[in-house]
């Protein structure tokens, strides 16, 4: 999972990187802060990578999850949700040693200043999901689509998670919306300074790629989806895995 941190308080642009699956079938639980800083007259780009330690209720190793930044009451926090991991060691057999399961549907919230992480269970998020899309604006995160191993499906899910960073304990509430997309493993990119995004590609089923594109707008009213004319896909893309 990768999350962008926009420059603030004199700090440079940076990225959070958590988890992931390696070619050796290892799944990571590490959190890194990648900072890009351009200095000097030659505009040389300097990249620094620092591992961040989390304490308290720490998310386990996983991949296929998302991280998003939220802002509330002058504070900033990171929201981590979803993903897959290996079966617990006590449940594995020789045949299922490398089998993966959806992680629990808990939402993890942590701050970067103190590295304190907390886990939150919400009744609306009762199924695990992976390879979904997450978009955030101010104190809200929208979870779009995703794949569930339990049902082997990609239901058109859309959740709005609101995070209030109160003094002491944060307050998280979740709402199920009706305008989701049936999609997994899509690419999402922001198109400018406003909260306007493009969702590109992905899968509608194991054997059917999503060749359509969508524009997503986050504003004071909520979330809006608009169809977008797709590019002229090459045959290699159309027929590839």
UniProtKB/TrEMBL annotation:
One of its GO terms (molecular function) is sequence-specific DNA binding. Keywords: Chromatin regulator, Metal-binding, Zinc, Zinc-finger. GO terms for biological process: chromatin organization; V(D)J recombination. InterPro entries: Gal_Oxase/kelch_b-propeller, Kelch-typ_b-propeller, RAG2. GO terms for cellular component: DNA recombinase complex; nucleus. Coiled coil: none annotated. PANTHER family: V D J RECOMBINATION-ACTIVATING PROTEIN 2, V(D)J RECOMBINATION-ACTIVATING PROTEIN 2. This is Recombination-activating protein 2. It comes from Pomacentrus moluccensis (Lemon damsel).
């Amino acid at each position: 999972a990768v999350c962008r941190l926009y420059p603030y308080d004199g700090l440079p642009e940076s990225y959070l990187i958590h988890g992931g699956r390696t070619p050796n079938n290892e799944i990571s639980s590490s959190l890194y802060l990648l900072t890009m800083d351009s200095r000097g007259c030659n505009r040389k780009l300097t990249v620094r990578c620092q591992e961040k330690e989390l304490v308290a209720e720490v998310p386990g190793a996983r991949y296929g999850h998302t991280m998003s930044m939220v802002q509330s009451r002058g504070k900033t926090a990171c929201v981590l949700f979803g993903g897959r991991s290996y079966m617990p060691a006590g449940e594995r057999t020789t045949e299922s040693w490398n089998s993966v399961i959806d992680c629990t549907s808990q939402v993890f919230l942590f701050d970067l200043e103190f590295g304190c992480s907390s886990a939150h269970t919400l009744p609306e998020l009762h199924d695990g999901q992976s390879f979904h899309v997450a978009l955030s604006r101010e104190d809200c995160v929208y979870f779009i689509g995703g794949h569930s191993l339990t049902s082997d499906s990609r239901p058109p899910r859309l959740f709005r998670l609101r995070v209030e960073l109160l003094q002491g304990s944060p307050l998280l509430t979740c709402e199920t919306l009706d305008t989701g997309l049936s999609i997994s493993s899509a690419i999402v990119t922001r198109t400018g300074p406003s909260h306007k995004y493009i969702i590109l590609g992905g899968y509608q089923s194991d054997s059917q790629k999503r060749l359509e594109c969508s524009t997503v707008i986050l504003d004071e009213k909520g979330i809006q989806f608009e169809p977008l004319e797709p590019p002229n896909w090459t045959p290699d893309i159309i027929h590839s895995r």
